[in-house]
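The following record pairs a protein chain with its ligand, flavin-adenine dinucleotide.
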Amino acid sequence: MEELSTKVLIVGGGPGGYVAAIRAGRLGLDAVVVEKAALGGTCLNVGCIPSKALIQAAEHYHHAAAGAGETFGLTVKAPVLDFCKTIAWKDGIVERLTGGVGALLRKAKVRVIHGEARIGDGKTVIVSGSSGPVRIRCEHLVIATGSLPAALPALPFGGDVIDSTQALALNAVPASLAVVGAGYIGVELGTAFAKLGARVTIVEAADRILPAWDTELTKPVARRLEELGVSVRVGCLAQGRPSEGGGLVVEPRGGGDGSVVAAQKILVAVGRRPATSGFGIEGLQLAMSGPFIGIDDRCATSMRNVWAIGDVTGEPMLAHRAMAQGEMVAELIAGHRRRFEPAAIPAICFSDPEIVAVGLLPEQARASHGDVSVGTFPFRANGRAMTQGDDAGFVRVVARDSDRAVVGIQAVGSGVSELSAAFVLAIEMGARAEDLAATIQAHPSRGEALQEAALGAFGKSIHV
Ligand code: FAD
Ligand code: NAD
């Protein structure tokens, strides 16, 4: 068996693993990354990037097909969708990005081993790849194995029951699609397929869509789903396939009469589970935190020099958290003093309209800080939003009354994902509501709503 030794061995080449590897390489550490599928992991290959590409394509098609241009005096002949071309365009973007990751790793002098890693002990891993097994010994082991779609016992994956990976690789838009789960994936992909022409039903166990956010933020999204003709069945559970014919059996959560929903395909999007089994990790007997690998604020596990980053370590299961952890762990291994203590990790749902949440929602802020002031500014009073033909939504600033520190900023509206940069900066740099209120924002821009919402926290907004 081929033998290798290295200072840092990273298992998993997703956003957590590849960023850790690039940083380690650039710091002059000898680093190896092992990936069993494709560099870029879930995010680049079957997650963030392909889903956003599909959402964008669906938006263009829908605009043309629904005659949205008429608002601007534009008439478009019935558009024709070549879905295979859409998927090919999406695949091209994925290829460019994953190719870029490979090039960055090479430039950082990181060795990439393709194959499945099996962990022997905290210092040895055996990789079975196409060119035969390799035993790798390391000083530091970084576990970055990510997560996998969670299945429902009543609806095992297979046939017409698909996960997000398969939903992003269909070769035709299904005539009808039932989506189980109205979280990030259910709402993002459910909306995209509705815009592409599928008859979509979303089934959600909680009593509203996107239950992780407050109703003020999610109401414009619920309204848009209704306008798109999406049937949303909240407080309901998917019970499986009917004994005869196609579709999905849906029942109210508390019991009651079930009904069958039309479904050429059924997308199950009820969360993701960490990849913590099947590759020998159990043998390390690491302390766990529920189903996730337990870590401290340096991403250190309970075993010395074994680190864990990304989705395998818990919520929020987001690419930018994984990347930030990866960078930090590489620096720790290089001897830097670091802790993972972000003031906020932004969350964006690429729904229609988009939702951004940074820091604490008003209720969470009240629970943690007592009295807070909340300033909200609606896009219907924002010139830029009007000229863009979509003035739904608002920006909201949450400030702690004791010292006016901004502890949360949220928004819902078209294109607000790009405002997240300003929101994160404000919170990470410890801005007070006065600081935001005193900024001069370019006119006309949606950013003006941030300043106005901060003014609103003192009852001083100008344009409402
Ligand atoms: P992963 O990206 O899952 O990478 C883990 C890698 O480890 C994989 O490539 C896997 O093949 C490899 N691996 C596992 N076990 C082994 C082994 N034994 N040997 C070798 N290799 C192994 N997040 C966002 O922030 N924004 C978004 O817009 C967004 N959209 C998403 C859309 C969808 C449809 C999905 C499914 C997820 C989305 N996410 C999004 C979440 C994001 O993809 C994850 O948070 C992120 O990929 C986690 O990175 P990671 O490095 O921890 O794990
Ligand atoms: P999620 O946790 O966002 O949502 C799952 C939803 O399914 C919840 O609303 C839950 O109440 C519901 N649910 C659970 N069991 C159910 C059942 N039996 N019947 C009906 N509904 C049920 O999970 P997801 O949408 O699968 O996404 C997985 C993860 O991927 C997310 O948590 C997030 O970390 C990541 N992601 C992020 C983005 C983004 O950042 N824009 C996009 C997609 C995915």
